[in-house]
Amino acid sequence: MKNVCLTRGLWQVFLMLGYFMACSGWSVAQPIGHALPAGNALQTQVYQTVLDYVTQQTASYPGTVKIDIQPLDSRVRLATCAHMSGFTLQGSKLWGKTHVGVKCEQGAGKPWLIYVQTDVQVWANYVVTAVPVSQGTLIQPDQVMMQYGDISKLPAGIVTDTTQLEGKQAALNLTLGAILRPEVLKSVPVIVQGQTVQITSVGEGFAITADGTAMQSAIAGQRVDVKVRSGQIIKGIATASGRIEMQF
Length: 248
What we know:
Blueprint: H1 2-23, H2 41-57, E1 64-69, E2 81-87, E3 96-107, E4 113-129, E5 144-150, E6 168-170, E7 185-187, E8 196-203, E9 206-214, E10 223-228, E11 233-238, E12 244-247
Parallel strand pairs: 8-12
Antiparallel strand pairs: 1-4, 2-3, 3-4, 4-5, 6-7, 8-9, 9-10, 10-11, 11-12
């Protein structure tokens, strides 16, 4: 228990240090703003439609989004259009190299649509190892560091917040600078099979505690079977403190 408390304390210090650095301006310079490709008035209208659409759709993305729009083929001829709108095909994601559709909804001639190649870069902090970490090692704050880059070019699901590492251990040997993602991490069980655990039953106006034996290992939040003194098997939820909680 003492080691667990010490580990949590280290994470709190690490997070406070990161907050202080951010507030003090100790951060990597952000990417420059978006620049539209050169073109005639109609092409510029198309590029601006793409930019406006992507900017709106990526407003909730982490970090800073940089939108790189590729120029249209010079052989493309489009009819004058009074109103354009942007769109993406169903299932596609505005992430990395993609295509954004632009359709003319109000023009003098026949309605048209065109797809514009666009690179949506997402520049943000992500977590890497600061030292080599052996398989099975509980990840400690001094073993990781934040790195800044275009996460749209990295594997999906990478760790971008150090709080995601609490209670995690290396699932395999990690080299210096390894990008942390779910596949290389696993949760440390808070309850081990055969361990004597405390069961807390909480209801409206009452709370009852009893001891039992865990029938399987579990991480925080998992359902676990517990054998009580009478021989009955009851089910509860494993908590981060190593107890079993039952709600009524």
